[in-house]
Amino acid sequence: MNAKCITVRYEAGEYYLKNGVKGGATYGCYYKNGKYHKNRGFGWESVYAPSRLILVVEIEGKRTEIWIDRFFKERVGRLTNNRICKIVGAMPNFVKVKNMGNYYLVQDSSLEAWLMSAEI
């Protein structure tokens, strides 16, 4: 199924330390409100959210968002400003998507062609 590309949006990640966390409240790492929390001990906790590269597409008259950051991070590494500009500038008009029930995925063949046209 083809989807019309509307725009690509980048959301920067964040990282900070939080103090005053109860020691026995959680063990290890947990996910809450789009952020990962990791207990460091002695009342400290690391909180981080990964950066996201989001493709907004129109499928059958409806707009939806698809996360595409994982593909580009695996292929080219960290999403720097220069790489983001090249990816956004090379955005195709249409991509092939796969319906996964509750969400859509962009097919790897479309993403590979996008990466080749971005010349990263």
From TrEMBL:
Superkingdom: Bacteria
Protein name: Uncharacterized protein
Source species: Agathobacter rectalis
